[in-house]
Write a structure and sequence with these properties.
Length: about 140
């Protein structure tokens, strides 16, 4: 069975913070949804009826946007994914999300907001697997 990734590790979090990124950072999210959302660890926020992982993620996004925007962040792209044109044929993602934050510090403050954290269970219930890749804009050479 392949390892699943839903949260940063302590080591990856440390590496992210210690890179010394200055200015904007864009988070590339690759998302694979569960067919049916699993709220077994979050009974207090479980919907009354069974919902799909995509529906649970939609709830998470609606909950998250006000906190993201208040922190200075924004969703710059969200779309459905399909098979790779270049990449492993067995690796599939359902959605891609690009989130821009003004700084690493703003991103961390957003992630640690206790009111935001009250809805994180929707994300966990929704996702089968995910990837989160911080991206920093660079200058194009030979323009």
């Amino acid at each position: 069975m392949n390892k699943k990734y839903l949260s940063p590790t302590q080591e990856s979090g440390y590496k992210f913070i210690s890179q010394g990124i200055k200015g904007n950072v864009v988070m590339l999210n690759l998302l694979r949804f569960k067919e049916i959302a699993d709220y077994s660890n979050y009974p207090d926020i479980k919907p009354k009826k069974e919902i799909s992982g995509k529906e649970a993620y939609d709830i998470y996004i609606k909950h998250t946007l006000p906190f993201l925007e208040k922190s200075g962040g924004e969703v710059i792209f969200m779309g459905e994914a399909s098979a790779y044109l270049i990449g492993p044929s067995e690796e599939k993602w359902d959605a891609v999300l690009l989130v821009k934050q003004k700084s690493v510090e703003d991103f961390i403050a957003f992630e640690q907001n206790s009111e935001y954290m009250k809805g994180i269970g929707h994300r966990t219930a929704a996702l089968e697997d995910s990837r989160l890749l911080p991206i920093v804009e660079s200058e194009l050479t030979n323009r």
